[in-house]
């Protein structure tokens, strides 16, 4: 157990310690008091950029957001946050009050107000890949003006022209479009230049703080909070517990107080869970995957190799972890800041501080670790996470992937998908139904939807077959068939030409 520094020092040194410990406390009596102090540094309450921590509803600064929502003088906000909470909660409150003018986010999620305001021309939205957003914040806090990333190369994010704001007249015409990014080739790979983000005020949530502003986070509630804290000129941290300086073990502090200007104990702390997801009893209906989805899941599980670090998308990909081949152990990464993701919690044991990238409640396995969003995507971009399995709306014969938006109709955002598929050298497996619900092709010569990644897919697993993608030269090869389907069936349901593996085509596993 950690022993306070005071008791470990000899008596002759304690007077010196008291001198260095006499700096003013950073603790403020209320969120309103902390915000008043912050506004004194800006000399205005309008047109400010707020960097707001949290992922979904996990680790959001509820008290500080509530205090801002009660101050009508705070207007024309630019909010930098991975997403905007949900309708009427979190940053959703500030959207509904009309205080937010612009969002810089990676994900719209299930916030209908966010989506409606964007498509209706009431809100400017700069959609940014999740890892790029985290790194832009980290770079801003580190004094680095810009950096190059492989994420989004070859997509509309790099090429420019994506709608940031629609005209408010209902015409659907674009008022503001994104500008092209500078690109450069390093080691035969195209990279995109992204500028750092700094904010006027950072609003973050932590578990514990001491009176000097040192912070400790809990579980996946760390997420964007350290990155947002560093990026702000003035940082306010709301915390669940405040202790005296010296009571926190220096080696266990996640964010030094040099990045934090004031600390306030939470007054609003509902810690709402966006998706309470509990473990199905073994053998129950909810634990059994049948039909075409079951076929996809079982085939996807064959891609796991012992010792792999793996990122699994929500839905079909996540289910694959339940069918690990015998003798295979993998480490599951969730890009919101967890390595060693375990099963859903047992009934009644859901914890708001432990969620996955789909905002579902999860549990950590023994040996798990948590980290910030920028650290999470650092391990993704550097290919420490060797396999990504995710869903798709469309895949082209050249291995292009589209899975994040239907322009003018559905705006979910790219989240971390662009970062996950854009890492040079990573293996990307797409799992999806072979055709759309209306019978239209999802595997095409060219994607008609905005791309998530260009030439990034290695393997496509559908309910009908398995295709191998040649990312370098382009082209698909049919390597497995589901029982009951023929090559002619695949040709009829595929919108591009493909080769067929030599010899007898193996069958995918059945239930």
Automatic annotation (TrEMBL):
Q: Name the Enzyme Commission number(s) assigned to this protein.
A: 2.8.3.5
Known catalysed reaction(s)? a 3-oxo acid + succinyl-CoA = a 3-oxoacyl-CoA + succinate
- Pathway membership of this protein? Ketone metabolism; succinyl-CoA degradation; acetoacetyl-CoA from succinyl-CoA: step 1/1
Q: Name one GO molecular function term.
A: succinyl-CoA:3-oxo-acid CoA-transferase activity
Q: Which InterPro entries match?
A: 3-oxoacid_CoA-transf_B, 3-oxoacid_CoA-transferase, CoA_trans_fam_I, NagB/RpiA_transferase-like
* Gene3D superfamilies xref list: Glutaconate Coenzyme A-transferase
Which Gene Ontology terms describe the biological processes this protein takes part in?
A: ketone body catabolic process
Keyword Mitochondrion part of the UniProt annotation:
yes
User: What does the UniProt keyword field contain?
Assistant: Mitochondrion, Transferase
Keyword Transferase applies: yes
In terms of SUPFAM superfamilies, this protein maps to: NagB/RpiA/CoA transferase-like
Name the active site residues: 335
> In which family does this protein belong, per the annotation?
Belongs to the 3-oxoacid CoA-transferase family.
The entry's function note states: Key enzyme for ketone body catabolism. Transfers the CoA moiety from succinate to acetoacetate. Formation of the enzyme-CoA intermediate proceeds via an unstable anhydride species formed between the carboxylate groups of the enzyme and substrate.
The name this protein goes by in its record: Succinyl-CoA:3-ketoacid-coenzyme A transferase
Q: Which organism is it from?
A: Triparma laevis f. longispina
């Amino acid at each position: 157990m950690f022993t306070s520094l005071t008791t470990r020092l000899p008596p002759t040194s304690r007077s010196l310690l008291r001198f260095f410990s006499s700096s003013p406390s950073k603790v403020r009596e209320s969120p309103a008091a902390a915000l008043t102090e912050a506004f004194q540094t800006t000399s205005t309450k309008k047109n400010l950029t707020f960097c707001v921590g949290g992922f979904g509803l996990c680790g959001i600064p509820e008290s500080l957001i509530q205090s801002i929502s009660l101050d009508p003088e705070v207007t024309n906000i630019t909010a930098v946050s991975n997403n905007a909470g949900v309708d009427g909660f979190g940053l959703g409150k500030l959207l509904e009050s009309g205080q937010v003018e612009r969002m810089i986010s990676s994900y719209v999620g299930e916030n209908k107000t966010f989506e409606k305001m964007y498509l209706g021309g009431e809100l400017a939205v700069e959609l940014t890949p999740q890892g790029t957003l985290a790194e832009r914040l980290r770079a801003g806090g580190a004094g680095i003006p810009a950096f190059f990333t492989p994420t989004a190369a070859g997509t509309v994010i790099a090429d420019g022209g994506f709608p940031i704001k629609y005209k408010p007249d209902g015409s659907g015409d674009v008022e503001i479009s994104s500008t092209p990014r500078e690109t450069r080739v390093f080691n035969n790979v195209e990279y995109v230049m992204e500028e750092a983000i700094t904010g006027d005020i950072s609003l973050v949530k932590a578990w514990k703080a001491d009176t000097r502003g040192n912070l400790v986070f809990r579980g996946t509630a760390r997420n964007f909070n350290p990155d947002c804290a560093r990026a702000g000129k003035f940082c306010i941290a709301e915390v669940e517990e405040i202790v005296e300086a010296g009571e926190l073990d220096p080696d266990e502090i996640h964010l030094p107080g040099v990045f934090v200007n004031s600390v306030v104990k939470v007054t609003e702390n509902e810690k709402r869970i966006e998706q309470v997801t509990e473990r199905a009893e073994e053998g129950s209906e909810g634990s059994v995957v049948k039909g075409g989805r079951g076929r996809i899941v079982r085939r996807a599980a064959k891609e796991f190799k012992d010792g792999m670090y793996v990122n699994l998308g929500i839905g079909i990909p996540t289910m694959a972890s339940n069918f690990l081949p015998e003798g295979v152990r993998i480490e599951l990464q969730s890009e919101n800041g967890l390595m060693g993701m375990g099963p859903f919690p047992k009934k009644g044991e859901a914890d708001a501080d432990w969620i996955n990238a789909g905002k579902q409640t999860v549990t950590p396995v023994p040996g798990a670790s948590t980290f910030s969003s920028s650290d999470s995507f650092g391990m993704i971009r550097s290919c420490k996470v060797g396999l990504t399995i995710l869903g798709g709306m469309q895949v082209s014969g050249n291995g292009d992937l589209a899975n994040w938006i239907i322009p003018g109709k559905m705006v979910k955002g790219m989240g971390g998908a662009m970062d996950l598929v854009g890492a040079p050298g990573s293996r990307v497996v797409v799992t999806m139904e072979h055709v759309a619900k209306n019978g239209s092709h999802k595997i095409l010569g060219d994607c008609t939807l905005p791309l998530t990644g260009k030439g990034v897919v290695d393997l496509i697993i559908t309910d009908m077959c398995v295709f191998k993608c040649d990312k370098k030269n382009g082209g698909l090869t049919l390597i497995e068939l589901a029982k009951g389907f023929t090559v002619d069936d695949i040709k009829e349901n595929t919108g591009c030409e493909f080769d067929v593996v030599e010899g007898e085509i193996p069958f995918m596993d059945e239930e």
